[in-house]
Design brief:
This protein has one domain (2-90, 97-203). 80% of the residues lie in helices and 0% in strands. The chain is built from 8 helices and no strands. The longest helix has 26 residues, at 178-203. The protein is globular, with a radius of gyration of 17 Å.
Length: 204
């Protein structure tokens, strides 16, 4: 038990109180964001924007460049999604639907482009030398595609989040961001619930 506690706490021994507080704030807001997404509540975007903005700072400080990129993208896509969902509130026709072949093709293009870009960034910083970098590249690409699908209210985005979360849970513990690892466990649970809630809506 002590070994488990040490594994969780050890990475924070050199962190400042401010860094720990910012990570906890980012985690809490991130959880609220996913919960709002599950409920189709537009507050998914403002809470998500604040969370991802905090993570940009945190991940840059930990030299997690792939995570810096993904959180920058989350922030931009949240602005896009906020605009798209507001159109729905005002009476436009964006609503939950299945992804078409074109949508999945776009998601695949985003996935491949993102993975390529992240690899180039890691090579630029001479950092593509750890096993976690390969998983980081994959999850970044998966989450980029998921975020685009979510902004357009495609139910398949939950499946992308589920796969990415499953990989991210151990990955973030290894990276030394224990609170974020716990966050991804909650994300996984919410993603599964969100998928079935959106599925019920489609059936109706």
């Amino acid at each position: 038990m002590n070994d488990l506690i040490d594994f969780f706490v050890a990475p924070y021994t050199s962190a400042t109180a401010l860094d720990i507080a910012l990570e906890i704030a980012a985690v809490v807001l991130g959880i609220f964001s996913v919960w709002y997404a599950k409920k189709e509540n537009i507050l998914v975007f403002p809470t998500g924007i604040i969370s991802t903005s905090l993570y940009i700072y945190i991940c840059f400080k930990f030299s997690l460049y792939g995570d810096v990129i993904i959180n920058s993208y989350y922030t931009l896509m949240s602005l896009y999604g906020w605009y798209m969902w507001r159109r729905f509130i005002k009476g436009s026709n964006i609503e939950v639907s299945y992804a078409s072949i074109k949508d999945m093709s776009n998601a695949l293009i985003i996935f491949v482009s993102t993975a390529t870009f992240v690899v180039l960034v890691y090579f630029y910083f001479d950092r593509f030398d750890r096993l976690t970098d390969y998983f980081d590249t994959f999850t970044t690409a998966v989450f980029f595609a998921a975020m685009w699908l979510m902004a357009n209210k495609k139910i398949e985005h939950w499946l992308f989040w589920i796969v990415g979360n499953l990989i991210s849970i151990p990955l973030y513990f290894i990276k030394g961001l224990g609170f974020s690892g716990l966050q991804f466990i909650i994300f996984l649970i919410l993603a599964v619930q969100g998928y079935f809630e959106w599925k019920k809506q489609l059936v109706k």
